[in-house]
Design brief:
The chain has two domains: 221 residues, Creatinase/prolidase N-terminal domain (Creatine Amidinohydrolase, Chain A, domain 1); 196 residues, Creatinase/methionine aminopeptidase superfamily (Creatine Amidinohydrolase), CATH 3.90.230. 35% of the residues lie in helices and 17% in strands. The chain is built from 15 helices and 21 strands. A six-stranded mixed beta sheet has the order 8-7-6-3-9-10, with helices on both faces. The protein has a three-stranded antiparallel beta sheet with strand order 11-14-15. Helix 10 crosses helix 11, helix 12 runs antiparallel to helix 13 and helix 13 packs across helix 14. It starts with a helix and ends in a 12-residue tail after the last helix. The structure holds manganese (II) ion (MN). The site of manganese (II) ion has 5 residues, from loops. InterPro entries: Aminopep_P_N, Creatin/AminoP/Spt16_N, Creatinase/aminopeptidase-like, Pept_M24, X-Pro_dipept-like. Its cofactor is Mn(2+). Keywords: Aminopeptidase, Hydrolase, Manganese, Metal-binding, Protease.
Length: 526
């Protein structure tokens, strides 16, 4: 508990004056009301939903895609109707018990889905849903708006969905949409309306009834709908008692993963780990960085992932020192290392892995020295990783361990002051040890990394060491080497569980894995 209090103090110093944050953190630390044990909530099986088995809504259902679902009670693969309902109720309870929310009995929450981003005339990028919207509804369609109407006295919750109406002419081109009927039958909305009636319907249903209205104004993913929502909120004819920004309230719920979310995250980590193994095994001098990108994506999708989590970093040699290098255009040269940072998305849940390996299959002495140093730093952090410590605490562990190890290799002069040392070490690893992981790669970004870790949280652990080829202050043999080792870690009551453990990271294991590269299974000519 002492460390929790220290963390709380740190959080308070950073967010001094932000009472809202304080209230969230206190609630988090006391933990009992909403969050503690969230991952243990049991979602009972309900009676068979009253659905037409012919339901066609443009996204997989248990009826249309039997290979993806284990039960007809799931709305999206792995997540049941009960769990989606629980998430909506949990959010409204948290909002109604917020320090502002407590002053009001009636609460409205409004959230837009993402829009379809256009790649070129008439042709969109693959659609990616707003993760808050997907978390609360399971709806994987652009443009919709979700409204939750909650009364804290009676605990009555109504779920409204505004969706594009069914239009056979439009669906001939773009495929099926959900439509109003399935919004109710399949997604369990209490009522559904056409999207273009949003403003008039909201005026009609909720005007003048003393609501505290919550909405999201940060990191929104639909500029058009956001304008429509803001116009409604700013309309003096739309009477309400208060308007509140959602803030981190939903992220506090998303921070602790449920058992079904953990299953999906494990699956995502397993797919990506296996794909990384194959990419490592296939690497050889003369390939292009983008070839490894292509292999990673191929392997992840062959194994059932829908996307890569983000454009991967495939950085040969000195490019590894550019942290967000995604050009992936360079030749992979004999004698260099290659750093790959990537992961996949499996039914809404992502993995995020980094490995660094020798292009020719064998570490040089200098590469091995620095690689094993980073591995040692990661192991040191993993030993510290347990309930109640925070990501910030683990970051500090990484910096201290890096400093100690680099000093042994002659990176710093003997008489360097500890303040100078801290500054110099952060030049060799300018990023944080890790971040929360979930539906987003950088999950729940509004939550401070000083929060104590709890079972059900998932984090990345990614110590790195980056020595620029132009750094004349270090021995020549180390210049131009960039290394990062990243694993995905679930916090459990029994300690850290490494979800990416099946992917080798010891020097010997990697060299052994690459020993078979001559029998490359991919026919990429070099
Ligand atoms: Mn990461």
């Amino acid at each position: 508990m002492a460390s929790s209090l220290k963390n709380l103090k740190k959080v308070l110093n950073l967010y001094s004056g932000t009472w809202n944050f304080y209230s969230g953190v206190t609630r988090y630390l006391s933990g009992t009301r909403y969050l503690s044990g969230t991952n243990k909530v049991q979602f009972e099986i309900e009676s068979k939903p009253n659905l037409s088995e012919k339901i066609n809504i443009g996204q997989p259902t248990a009826f249309s895609h039997t290979h993806l679902f284990e039960s007809i009670h799931e709305i999206t693969p792995g997540i049941s109707r009960k769990e989606y309902a629980w998430r909506r109720r949990q959010l409204m309870h948290v909002l109604a018990e917020d320090h502002v929310g407590r002053n009001y009995d009636k609460h409205l929450f409004i959230l837009s889905a993402a829009d379809l981003k256009i790649m070129t005339n008439d042709i969109p990028y693959p659609f990616h849903q707003d993760t808050d919207f997907l978390y609360l509804s399971g709806v994987n369609e652009p443009d919709a708006i979700l409204v939750l109407d909650f009364n804290r006295v009676s605990s009555r919750l109504k779920f409204l969905l505004f969706v594009k109406p069914k239009d056979p002419k439009r669906e001939l081109w773009d495929g099926a949409v959900i439509g109003q009927q399935a919004a109710v039958d399949y997604f369990n909305a209490d009522e559904s309306f056409p999207l273009n009636s949003f403003t008039s319907m909201m005026q009609e249903k909720f005007n003048n009834s003393g609501y505290c209205v919550w909405y999201k104004n940060r990191r929104t993913s639909h500029a058009g709908n956001q304008q429509i929502i803001l116009s409604l909120l700013n309309d003096t004819n739309f009477k309400k008692k208060a308007i509140q920004e959602l803030g981190f309230n939903l992220q506090m719920i998303r921070l602790i993963k449920s058992a079904s979310e953990i299953n999906l995250l494990k699956k995502s980590a397993t797919i990506a780990s296996k794909a990384f193994s194959k990419v490592i095994k296939s690497t050889r001098p003369g390939m292009i960085e983008s070839n490894l990108h292509a292999l990673l994506e191929y392997e992840c999708r062959i194994d059932g992932a829908q996307f890569l989590s983000f454009p991967p970093v495939v950085a040969g040699g000195n490019s590894a020192n550019t942290l967000h290098y995604i050009n992936n255009t360079q030749l992979l040269r004999d004698g260099e290392l290659v750093l790959m940072d990537g992961g996949c998305e499996y039914h809404g849940y992502v993995s995020d892995i980094t490995r660094t390996w020798p292009v020719n299959g064998k570490f040089s002495e200098a590469q091995k020295e620095l690689y094993e140093l980073v591995l040692h730093v990661q192991e040191t952090c993993l030993k510290e990783c347990k309930e109640d410590v925070s990501l910030d605490h683990l970051h500090n562990t990484m910096m201290v361990s890096l400093a100690t190890e680099l000093k042994k290799l002659g990176f710093f002069s003997e008489n360097v002051s500890s303040a100078q040392l801290q500054k110099q070490v952060s030049q060799y690893c300018p990023h944080h040890l890790g971040h929360y992981l979930g539906m987003d790669t950088h999950d729940t970004p509004l939550l401070h990394r000083g929060l104590p870790l709890r079972p059900g949280m998932v984090i990345t652990m990614e110590p790195g060491l980056y020595v620029s080829e132009n750094d004349l202050s270090v021995p020549k043999k180390y210049r131009g080497i960039g290394i990062r080792i990243e694993d995905d870690v679930l916090i459990t009551e029994h300690g850290p569980y490494i979800m990416t453990a099946s992917l080798p990271k010891q020097v010997g294991q990697i060299e052994q894995l690459m020993g078979s590269f001559r029998n490359n299974e991919y026919s990429i000519s070099v």
